[in-house]
Structures are given as structure tokens and as C-alpha cells.
Write a sequence for this structure.
């Protein structure tokens, strides 16, 4: 069994493969994270997963894929790191995660604050174009749901 610290080191060394590689990045990450939840300190991997997304914003890690599913397992622990990541370097996956959070919210004020964050990302100048487009798409989707 791999310890959390070993898993974090593997994530730091991880270099994504091309889309035509025999194994996808999602499968490779699944193999790295295989033992994670056997460790009591598994939550320590959270910042490393966001760092991986930020370092490779245009890489297909699956949608939602292993990274998102792993992070969402830490309900109540990953959200603060998600918001920090969105401020540093929004990616398609972090924007997807924000949209998933919005879908789960029942408090209108909190929902509107998060929808506003989507809007801000969608009009920002200095971020990844794919993340911007994803934010714009989710923003439009959320606005339609508010009206419905």
C-alpha cells in the first residue's frame, strides 16, 4: 500500500500523455490514486490535485474523471482549495467542479455568488481560453435555470 506522501510525490512527477497514448491520463491517475483512501491522511492530496490541473490546463483528465471524483470524495474539505484554484488559474475541470457545486446549492444567496464567480471567470482576460468558454457555457446554463 502506498502512503499518501508517496502518492503526492507521484502526482508531482506526473507528466500527462498524449490523447493517442494506449492508456488515458484518467486511467494513469486512477492507478496512482488506487491506495489513497486506505490512508487516514488521504485529504493531504487535495492541493496536489489542484496543482496538477493548474499545471496542465489543456490536458484531458476526463470529465469529470478521476481527479474530480477523488476531490469530491472530500466533501467539506476540498471546496476552499477549489476557490483558491479558481482565483489562481481556472481550468476546465475546476470550472466544471464549480458548476457541480452550484447545482447542489439550495441557498439562493450562495448560489448567486457562485454563479457570479462563473461570470467573472467567463469575462476574465488572463485565463485559459478553454476554461473561459466552459465558464461562459455554464453561466448561460445557470441563468436559464434561474429563470425557469
Amino acid at each position: 500500500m502506498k502512503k499518501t506522501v508517496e502518492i503526492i510525490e507521484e502526482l508531482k512527477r506526473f507528466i500527462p500523455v498524449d490523447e493517442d497514448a494506449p492508456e488515458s491520463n484518467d486511467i494513469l491517475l486512477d492507478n496512482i490514486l488506487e491506495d489513497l483512501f486506505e490512508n487516514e491522511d488521504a485529504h493531504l492530496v487535495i492541493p496536489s490535485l489542484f496543482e496538477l490541473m493548474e499545471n496542465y490546463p489543456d490536458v484531458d483528465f476526463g470529465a469529470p474523471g478521476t481527479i474530480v471524483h477523488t476531490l469530491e470524495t472530500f466533501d467539506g474539505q476540498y471546496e476552499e482549495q477549489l476557490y483558491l484554484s479558481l482565483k489562481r488559474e481556472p481550468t476546465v475541470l475546476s470550472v466544471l467542479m464549480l458548476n457541480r457545486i452550484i447545482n447542489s446549492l439550495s441557498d439562493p444567496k450562495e448560489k448567486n455568488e457562485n454563479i457570479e464567480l462563473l461570470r467573472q471567470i467567463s469575462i476574465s482576460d488572463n485565463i485559459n481560453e478553454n476554461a473561459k468558454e466552459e465558464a461562459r457555457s455554464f453561466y448561460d446554463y445557470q441563468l436559464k435555470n434561474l429563470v425557469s
